[in-house]
Each structure stands twice: as C-alpha cells, then as structure tokens.
Amino acid sequence: MRQVTAERRTHGMLMSESVGNVDDPDGAVRIQREGPLIVLQRSFLRRTLYDATHDFCTLLRAGRFPIHMTPSATSTRKRKIQRGADPTDYTPFFAYQRAASRQGKILHCEGVALTRVADAVGTPAFVYSRAGIEAAYRRLDRAFHPFPHTLCYAVKANSNLSVLRVLAKLGSGFDIVSGGELDRLRRIGVSGSRIVFSGVGKTRDEIRAALRYRASRSAQPGILIFSIESGAELELLLSESSRYSSGRNSRPSAAIRVNPDVMAGGHPHIATGAHHHKFGIDWPEARRLYLAHKDSPWLAWHGISAHLGSQIFSMSPYRRALARLASYVRDLARNGIRLDHVDIGGGIGIRYTDESALVPELYARALAEIVRPLGCRLLVEPGRTLVGPAGVLLTRVLYVKQNRGKTFVIVDAAMNDLIRPALYAATHPITPAVLSSSAAAKTTRVDVVGPVCESGDFFLRDWPLPPVQPGDLLIIWAAGAYSFAQSSNYNARRRAAEVLVEGRRFRVARRRETYADLVRGETI
To answer: Which of helix, strand or coil describes residue 40?
Structure first.
C-alpha cells in the first residue's frame, strides 16, 4: 500500500499532509498535519484549491470516478449531446402537438398549451405537471412494495403548498430541514407521524415547534423522528423534551445521522456523505451518544440515518453506506438498543441531458435486500426525482444581439429565478415553445442569458437554438426542483409565478410577486 504525501508552505512554515492511501478500496481519506497552523484561516484561493485536490484524490484513489458530473455546456462531449437531445423523449406529460390554427407544433403540459399559460399568467413562470409528480411518486412507491417503507418527500426541493398537497394526498411522508417547512406542512394538515426533521442547524425554537407540532387540535403532539446531527443538538433536544414531554410514552423519537464517509453526488456543493462535509456524526461518537442516552426519560431511540448527496447515478454508494448502517444497527442491538427505522436519505439523479438515471425497481430491490434482515422500516427521502422533471420555466425573448460573432439571446428570466446554471454549472435544456417544421435544420449556437447585472447570469452557453425574435416563448426544462425554491429578489426582481397543470386545466399555485411585496416589512 502506498501513501501519497504532499508538502506545502503556509505563512512561511512547511506543512506535510498525508493525502491518503492510494490502494485503500474504501475510499477513506486520512489527513495528518504537522505544526501549529492547523487552526489558521486559509485564504479563499487556498481553501478552494485544497478542497478540489482533496475531492479529486478521493476519487482517484478509489480507482474510478463514481460521481456522474454533468459536463460543461461548452465541452465537446456536451456539444454532441446538445445537438440530439430532445427533452420530450424523456420527460413524461410534456409533448409537442400540432396546432390547427398555425404552422408548427406547440409544447403542451398534459392537455394545456404552454403558450396559453404564458399569455394568461405572464413570464417568467414555473409550470408543474400534477400527473408528472403523481406518476413519479407512484412508480417509486410501487418499486418498494411490499417491503415496509415510507417515502418522505424532501420539502426543500419544491415547497409550493399545492405541490406538497398533491404529495400528501398520495400518502407521502415529508423530510424537512427548517421550521418554515414545518409550518408549510401544518398549513395543509400533514400529520406529525409523517414528518422527519433533518438539518444540521436546528434552532431551539424549531425543535420546540416540532415537539409541540399538531396538524389538528385533536392530534397527538410531535413528529415521526428527529434526525440528530451533533452532540450539542442532542443536548438541546433533551433540554426541550424535559420541558414538554409528560412521560415515557410521550418521549420524542430520535435517530442519529451518521456520516458514512462515502463520496457521492453530482457536484461538490451537493455531496454530503464524506467525512469532510458538515453533515452527520462519525460512528464512534454516534455510538457513544446512543449508549449514553440508552435509558433517557426524555428521548427514545428509534432510528439511524445517512444522506450521501444529490444527483447520484450509481448504486455503489448506496450499497456501501447502507451496509455500514446495517452493521451499526446490529451493533446497537447487541447493546440493547433495537431500532425500527433506517433512513438512507434521497439523492436519486434525474436526466437533464444525457445522464442515465437509476431504475426505481432495481434501486428499491438493492436497498431492501440490505435492510430486510434487520427487521426495520426503510425511510427514503426523494425530492428531485419526484418533482424535477415535472416542471419547466417559461421565459420570453427580450432581445437578440451580436457581439464579435457571438449571439446572445436575452430573456426575461434570470439567475434570480433559476440559479442552478451559475451555482452548480448545471445544464437545463432550452427549446422554443413553438417548433416550426424547419427549426431543427436552422439552429445556431447562442448564449441564453438574463437581464441581471452579472456575467454569471446565464442559462446556457453555446447552445443550439432555432432563430428567435423578441416575444418568442422559450422553455427551460427540468425546472421542478431546486429552482423556484432557490430563487431570490436579486436586482429587486419579483419572483416568478408558479402554475399547476391538472389535465386540461391549470391554476396559479403562487402569484407573481408585486413591487409592494418586495418592500413589505421595510422601513424608511
């Protein structure tokens, strides 16, 4: 076995780092630093370089690159994909249909022409297919049947009340990470027995609200399970529980989120399962906490959890992480702590361009095989895979400009509406809402950009698009997850409207903000 060692100078002092064992098949990274400078702050450039090198070495040491990164929109490989990819081929409930009153085809969501939505609601606007959300949920839920399981939708992916209500009616559980998300579930009457509270930074007020949560006056207070991410958070939960719990039968149910040290995820910002990430607790410390509070009058251990990241396209990280959780469950059982829930998180990737998404049935079978011998219920926290493909962003062309041979298509949506291209280098295909018969043959490469005052305000660069002119409607695909949820009022822009399509009808699920909304709460 070989060790890779790097030396560097920091503030004039030599520091040595053992980057890791290149033959370690488990991918564990062991870093040792010499000298007293471990606590010194690094500059932004040094920290960025360190993290990038660390992540690369982790993958290289494993002998493969298990992370399916979405390639840059300007790469040669992506150029080939862009020419042939048609989002309607892999996005259910969206299709171009020929219009009787005009030439060409108009994109429809279920039975509604998206040109009709744009004319009625304006742009930019997010449009969600109810049928698309329901079909995705039902397929994943059926894939696990008859194994005991609960799908807990990750509310952070899309927290629109109408979307949450659709999922609640299907019987979904919910994974939340804030008091605001808890309040949204209360507003649609979700039972506390269907709520998992995750998140690395729960406040005292949020923990208190969850302990006292009731969907109705007659309901029992509390939630399904608290997912604990630190010893300090556990102490806070115990403190609040001692004030609000009335006895052993009313103790809050808890799990510890273990950091499995498994690298996965489609981008460094959305990878959460390695030891250098802020999430979870290393197993030795988690084990100590389980045993120390084994007989606590203020808490009942019911589960264990892990979450690896997002946009995962391989079963290998799931198998590795879940196998580790299974060994921990057995260890705790030998010490008198019998758990009944194992939570593996979410992270199933979706296809934006050329990605190969996991087959739900194979995914479910692989997880169930590991958990079945434990006699535990499996909790899964899908988000993007349920709502991502079910949404699009409508935007109109404002201007087309040329600059030294480069063509810019300026649209009325911007990075404040959809920040994923700037934040994650994500590729969201863009097509016209109306296709003429000769559109495909006349495509030229353009940059599709927004009006925000930043060069980072772009959706795609060097993207093949048919000729467009001001007023034309464009479709930005796969915008149902982490799109409106991450939107802002940057440049004092109003956030977009949200629309839910239900068959041949549509309704506004969230109205466009007004300028008065932007200054509400401010004083002069």
So the answer is: coil
Active site residue 152: no
Nearest to 174 by CA among 448, 71, 186, 510: 186
What's at 269, amino acid-wise?
A: H
Position 436 scores a pLDDT of 84
Residue 405 to residue 417: CA distance in whole angstroms:
28
Q: Where are the beta strands (DSSP E) in 12-93?
A: 13-21
Q: Is 0.90 surpassed by the pTM of this model? A: no
Q: Which of 57, 152, 376, 453 is catalytic?
A: 453
Q: Give 186's contacts (C-beta < 8 A, 6+ positions apart).
A: 213, 215
Beta-carbon count within 10 A of 505 CB: 11
Query: Measuring CA to CA, how many Å separate 105 from each of 114, 120, 351, 434?
Result: 11, 19, 24, 5
First to last CA, the chain: 66
CA 356, 361, 364, 369 dihedral sign is: negative
Q: What H or E segment, with its residue span, contains residue 365?
A: helix 360-371
User: Which residues touch 114 (CB under 8 Å, ≥6 apart)?
Assistant: 106, 107, 108, 127, 392, 394, 433, 473, 475
Whole-number pLDDT of residue 158: 98
What is the rounded distance in angstroms from the CA atom of residue 261 to the CA atom of residue 307? 10
pLDDT, tens digit (0-9, with 9 covering 90-100), for 90-110? 999 999 999 776 668 999 999
Residues 6+ away with beta carbon under 8 Å from 191: 215, 219
Ranges of residues in the chain whose predicted pLDDT is under 50: 1-83, 273
| Three-state SS letters, 83-128 | HHCCHHHCCCCEEEEECCCCCCEEEEECCEEHHHHHHHHCCCEEEE
pLDDT tens-place string over residues 452-466: 999 999 999 999 999
Closest Cα partner for 443 from 460, 459, 469, 463? 463
Tokens found for residue 297: 């009058």
HEC-encoded secondary structure of 332-363: HHHCCCCCCEEECCCCECCCCCCCCCCCHHHH
Q: Return the CA Rg of the chain.
A: 25
Among 301, 285, 318, 282, smallest CA distance to 376 is for 301
**Triad 216, 222, 224: Cα angle to 5°:** 110
Peptide bond into 124 cis (omega under 30): yes
One-character DSSP codes across 254-290: EEEEB-------SSGGGB--STTSSSSB-HHHHHHHH
Helix or strand (DSSP H, E) at 459: strand 458-465
What would the two tokens of residue 84 be?
């042939």
**Polymer length of the chain:** 524
